[in-house]
Write a structure and sequence with these properties.
Number of helices: 5
Radius of gyration: 21 Å
CATH topology of one domain: 2,3-Dihydroxybiphenyl 1,2-Dioxygenase, domain 1
CATH superfamily of one domain: 2,3-Dihydroxybiphenyl 1,2-Dioxygenase, domain 1
Organism: Alloyangia mangrovi
Largest sheet: 10 strands, mixed
Pfam families: Glyoxalase (PF00903)
Shape: globular
Helix content: 10-25%
Oligomer: single chain
CATH class of one domain: Alpha Beta
CATH architecture of one domain: Roll
Strand order of the largest sheet: 17-10-11-12-9-13-16-15-14-18
Distance between the termini: 54 Å
Protein name: Glyoxalase
Length: 316
């Protein structure tokens, strides 16, 4: 089934105004949908929809009270939607909406919506690097970093879910929706990608007790590691709390930087994720610090070396 990946995640939030400020400061563009709903979009149009948690336009909440209300997936065309509807209608209620999208629940009760993707094509350069032994990617006098350089999320990358029944979720997404496992962290769960996306993962499951079921984090692709670092630094300086990072994962190879949020989940900037095709053989490693990252850095205030006793100690 030609599923591309997440178009939107929908949340019912406790603090609408605080969430709006957070998402704007994170680098997403606010678009008012109606009197109570807001879309915060990336450069390709994917993003996050928020409403007050009591809004009747929202799907019902999870029993755990996690603020995630719905995952909205984009597909290539109406034929893909028809195929998903036919498969899901075998054993559950599927609602076809006026705009052609379909809605149903997965085997654990997460609300899902599938639609012809709203992703806008992007034509933007990746981060350029200069390295000995390779042709220079930046022209003479072209700077690699500036104080006012843009560093905005380009696309909604992936979703991570806490799930109490791993077998049910893997079977549902792989056997019924055509997702492929790319790698597995034993003791946590698998990384998955859909058929129409070659990113290492758009979905990751972490096995948890039932009371934790919900969204753990969502991630946004940046244009490269420098954009990630610049965006994260700006975010910290606005007063937001770093949760994990910056660093670089092993599985997926993506750079990462996670932040706490008022939506009850973590938000991640990511960059430079691996691409895979159907010849890839999934790896497996025990979950833990060694498997979770190649290296981990820590943000600190800017510093400069001094010039000795009169100009400073020269020590950080």
């Amino acid at each position: 089934m030609r599923i591309i990946g997440p178009d939107y995640l929908v949340f019912g939030v406790d603090d609408l105004e605080g969430s709006k400020t957070y998402l704007t400061d994170f680098g997403l563009k606010p678009v008012q949908l109606d009197e109570t709903g807001w879309l915060f979009e990336t450069l390709d149009g994917t993003g996050v929809i928020i409403r007050p948690k009591s809004d009747p336009k929202l799907p019902a909440p999870l029993e755990t009270k996690n603020m995630l209300r719905q995952q909205v997936y984009g597909v290539e065309d109406m034929a893909a939607l028809d195929a998903i509807e036919a498969e899901m209608s075998k054993d559950r209620r599927v609602t076809r909406l006026a705009d052609g999208a379909i809605e149903f629940k997965d085997d654990l009760g997460f609300e899902l919506r599938f639609q012809v993707t709203i992703r806008r094509p992007l034509s933007m350069p990746a981060e350029k690097i200069n390295a000995p032994g390779a042709p220079a990617q930046r022209a003479p006098n072209e700077l690699g970093v500036t104080d006012d350089m843009p560093a905005l999320p380009r696309s909604l990358s992936h979703v991570v879910l806490f799930v109490p029944d791993m077998d049910k979720m893997v079977s549902f997404f792989c056997d019924r929706l055509g997702f492929v496992i790319t790698d597995v962290l034993t003791g946590a769960g698998p990384f998955l990608r859909p058929a129409a996306n070659d990113d290492h993962h758009t979905l990751f499951f972490i096995r948890t007790p039932a009371y934790m079921m919900g969204c753990e984090h969502l991630a946004f692709h940046m244009g490269g590691p420098t954009e990630l670092m610049v965006a994260g630094d700006r975010f910290v300086r606005k007063g937001y709390q770093s949760f994990w990072g910056p660093g670089r994962h092993k599985f997926g190879s993506n750079w990462f930087w996670y932040f706490n949020s008022p939506l009850g989940v973590h938000f991640e900037y990511d960059a430079d994720m691996d691409k895979h095709d159907d010849t890839w053989v999934a790896r497996e490693a025990p979950n833990g610090p060694e498997a979770s990252q190649m290296f981990l850095l820590q943000w600190r205030e800017k510093w400069a070396p001094g010039g000795g006793p009169e100009g400073g100690s020269g020590k950080p």
